[in-house]
């Protein structure tokens, strides 16, 4: 069966939380210590239910299995799950602000299949439809090569405190959007599945 990208719904939250934990613990261990990963999962990398309520968070499924999740936001918060304290829900102005690319996680067994790219192209298309012409994100060190391949720029690392004695390095990245650019066969959005 083909992969399907759709809008996440409330019933997806437990599966997304499980996927995020599995993805972070396996894929980020080359770039972060175990203590950093666990601290990040308690806040910076958790599920942001505001994105789900806004209809801007996406999941990719195949044969009923969740392969990845991620999305975009029209709010000022750049990263962080529900437990992360430094959040700003103020709405952005597409005429002057960049849309935020948020919380991308892929099942470690699904790497190299285009799951992340499918989510990203779908998110970018939705943001363009909402009037945005550029994006910004806070990339993990693990995610930087992927975002570079997708046209994002940024080099300087920033250190973010997570918990007393535990900091984590991220890379702020940006990308301008060419309005007439279309990626054939990618970026179509299915509606949420019926509640289970």
UniProtKB/TrEMBL annotation:
Answer whether the UniProt record assigns the keyword Disulfide bond to this protein: no
Please report the name of this protein according to its UniProt entry: N-acetyltransferase domain-containing protein
Annotated Gene Ontology MF terms?
A: acyltransferase activity, transferring groups other than amino-acyl groups
- Matching SUPFAM superfamilies, A to Z? Acyl-CoA N-acyltransferases (Nat)
The N-acetyltransferase domain covers 3-178
Pfam families associated with the record = Acetyltransf_7 (PF13508)
* Keywords for the protein's UniProt record, in alphabetical order: Acyltransferase, Transferase
């Amino acid at each position: 069966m083909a992969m399907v990208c759709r809008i996440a719904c409330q019933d997806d939250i437990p599966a997304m939380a499980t996927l995020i934990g599995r993805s972070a613990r396996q894929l980020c261990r080359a770039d972060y210590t175990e203590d950093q990963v666990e601290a990040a999962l308690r806040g910076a990398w958790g599920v942001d239910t505001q994105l789900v309520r806004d209809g801007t968070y996406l999941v990719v499924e195949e044969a009923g299995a969740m392969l990845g999740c991620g999305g975009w936001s029209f709010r000022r918060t750049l990263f962080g799950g529900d437990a992360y304290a430094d959040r700003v829900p103020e709405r952005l102005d597409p005429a002057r602000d960049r849309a935020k690319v948020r919380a991308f996680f892929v099942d470690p067994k699904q790497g190299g299949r285009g799951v992340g790219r499918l989510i990203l192209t779908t998110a970018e298309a939705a943001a363009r439809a909402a009037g945005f012409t550029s994006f910004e994100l806070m990339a993990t060190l693990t995610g930087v090569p992927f975002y570079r391949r997708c046209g994002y720029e940024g080099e300087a690392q920033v250190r973010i405190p997570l918990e007393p004695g535990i900091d984590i390095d991220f890379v702020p990245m940006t990308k301008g959007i060419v309005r007439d650019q279309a990626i054939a066969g990618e970026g179509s959005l299915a509606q949420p599945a019926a509640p289970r």
